[in-house]
Amino acid sequence: MAKKSNADSQFIWMDGQMVPYNNATTHVLSHSLHYGGAIFEGLRAYATPQGPALFRPQEHFERFLQSIKVMGYSISYSTTDLIRISHELIAKNNFPACYVRPVAYIDDSVRGLKLPPSPEVHTAIAVWPWGKYMGDEGHLKGVKVKTSTFRRPDVASSLPLAKISGAYLTSVLARREATLDGFDEAILLDPQGFVAEGSGENIFIVKDSEIMTPSVGYLLPGITRDCVIQIAKYLGFTLREEAITRNQLYLADEAFFTGTAVEVTPITEVDHLKIGLGHPGPITQKIKETFFKCTQGQVDPFKNWVHFP
């Protein structure tokens, strides 16, 4: 019996070809599967009156290529190529909106830890419809999170600016721990005990109408994070990037996650403590509302964030 396509995806692009979903496979002995050395990225295409629009694809694919570079890999595709291919794949699958997942990986031609100087790297892009990452209720009413027992690794032992598959094992374990304990998501601390980020999201807090977010160092500085920083300044809010303690998090008036998957999602409870009044706050709501206007190209300074074929 043929496998059912994921969320009605019909085609995946692989190494220059549009491949039927069920045929888009790689070997069980693939090097990247065994050793976690795949590179991936995530971006969204939003439905607009003019058709599906990729959101900040230039920045996403630049990060994809930079992540490939720091692993010592190379591929023959440019950001322009990858953007064009993504639009073609979305059209091929006839999606008005979707999530876009590029991945670069090494197949089973390499065994063991030692990589050749120039390993053959395969490139694929998948698309699928993906709704609210934390669910409709979490998106609207906010989510409950816990501080994880897992921490972000020291920068001397990681590449925090790159999206490397193996680096996300800690995130998987943190999210699983939170889920099993009855929470929606986890917050990970850095090695010094300061707030770093969620399992797959950046975090912001609001105190006395000022917005704060952890400094870059132990976290992946997300592209949605950058959107929110720019939006906050556009709206006239004071925003600071600095170390944030758990104490500050507990006493925040508001808190929210940002990320391609999670978009802008309010946090209403941390470690069983209500954040503010226990419901999404006005600054979070204003940021969120403006962000979704940006995904439609409706905010003049940020119209270039949406990209059409």
Write the layout of secondary structure elements.
Elements: E1 11-14, E2 17-20, H1 31-35, E3 39-40, E4 43-46, E5 53-55, H2 57-70, H3 79-93, E6 98-105, E7 122-128, H4 135-141, E8 143-151, H5 169-180, E9 185-189, E10 195-198, E11 202-207, E12 210-213, H6 223-234, E13 239-241, H7 246-250, E14 254-259, E15 263-270, E16 273-274, H8 282-294, E17 306-307
Parallel strand pairs: 8-9, 8-15, 12-13
Antiparallel strand pairs: 1-2, 1-7, 3-6, 4-5, 4-6, 5-17, 6-7, 9-10, 11-12, 11-14, 14-15, 15-16
What does this structure look like?
The chain is of the alpha+beta class and 309 residues long. The protein is built from 8 helices and 17 strands. It has helices at residues 31-35, 57-70, 79-93, 135-141, 169-180, 223-234, 246-250, 282-294; strands at residues 11-14, 17-20, 39-40, 43-46, 53-55, 98-105, 122-128, 143-151, 185-189, 195-198, 202-207, 210-213, 239-241, 254-259, 263-270, 273-274, 306-307. Strands 8, 9, 10, 11, 12, 13, 14, 15 and 16 form a 9-stranded mixed β-sheet that branches. The protein is globular and about 55 Å long.
